[in-house]
Amino acid sequence: MAMRSIRKARGCWSFIRALHKGPEAVHAPQVSEHTQLSWILTCLVRLPRLQHLHQWKAKTATQKHGGTTGLLTYPVLQAADILLYKSTHVPVGEDQVQHMELVQDLAQGFNKKYGEFFPVPKSILTSMKKVKSLRDPSAKMSKSDPDKLATVRITDSAEEIVRKFRKAVTDFTSEVTYEPARRPGVSNLVAIHAAVTRLPVEEALRRGAGMDTARYKLLVADAVIEKFAPIKREIEKLKMDRGHLEKVLQVGSAKAKELAHPVCQDVKKLVGFL
C-alpha cells in the first residue's frame, strides 16, 4: 500500500504537469526521504556492482559516453523507493529482476552492518514477464524507444494502435504459432493477445487458427484497443477535474511522507547521523 501511495502521487503529478502550461504550474510535493535513503544506500554499494547491471550496460552501449552518474545510481534510488516502506513483495517485469537482486543485496548488507531492520523483499512476476518491442522482438517494449512504432501506449488512439500492429515485425511464414525462439515476432503478438484477453496462450492460438499473420495483427490490435478503452475513458474523465487530481497528489504525498519519515529517521540513527 505504501508503494502504491507514492507511485499514485508521482503518476498524478506527471498527469497534472501535462495539463499545466507556463510558470503558473504548482511545484510538485516532495518526499525527500527517498533521496536521503538513496544516498545512504549508495554509500553501501561498490561501483562495479552497478556497472555490471544489464540495463546500465545496454543504455551506455547506445549512448556511448552519454551515461550519467544519475543513470548509474538509479537502481539504488529504486531500492530506496522499496526499502523505505519496508516492502516485502514487489511486482516487477523480468527486466527488473536484476535490479531487485540489488535491492535484496542492499537490504541484507544493511542488516548485516547495522542489525536486522529491512525485510528482504521478494519479486512477484506476472505470467507475461516481458512485453517485446513490436519492431525488434529481441528487445523489450520501452517508452524511451526512439522508434515510435515499437511501443503501444495507453493514450494511443485506436488508429495509432492498429497502425503499430500492422507494422509489427514478424517473418515470412503466414501461420500463427507460438515459438519464441524460432519466431519471436509472431510469438510476441500471441503473448500480447493472451495477456490483454487473460487467455492461456493455447486459447489465443486457437482464436488465431486459420488466420495469416496480417489478419492476426488486426485481431490483436482490436483486443488491445478493447482492453485500453475503459482506462482511456477514465483518463479523459480525470483530465476534466484538475482539482481532484491535485487533491489525490497532496493526500498521496502526505501519506507517503507519514510512512517514510520515521523509517528514514531510524536509518539515520542506525548509521550515526542522529
Derived structural class: mainly alpha
Q: CA-to-CA gap between the ends?
A: 28 Å
Give the low-pLDDT segments. 1-29
Order of strands, widest sheet = 1-2
Tell me the layout of helices and strands:
Elements: H1 2-19, H2 33-42, H3 47-51, H4 54-63, H5 69-83, E1 89-92, H6 97-114, E2 122-125, H7 158-166, H8 184-197, H9 201-207, H10 213-239, H11 242-271
Helix pairs in contact: 1-11, 2-5, 2-11, 5-6, 7-10, 8-9, 8-10
Please summarize what this structure is:
The protein is an all-alpha fold and 274 residues long. It has helices spanning 2-19, 33-42, 47-51, 54-63, 69-83, 97-114, 158-166, 184-197, 201-207, 213-239, 242-271, and strands at residues 89-92, 122-125.
Descriptive report:
Helices cover 59% and strands 3% of the residues. With 274 residues, it is mostly helical. Helix 6 links the parallel strand 1 and strand 2. The model is unreliable at 1-29 (pLDDT under 50).
Features:
2 strands, globular, mainly alpha, disordered N terminus, 3% strand, 274 residues
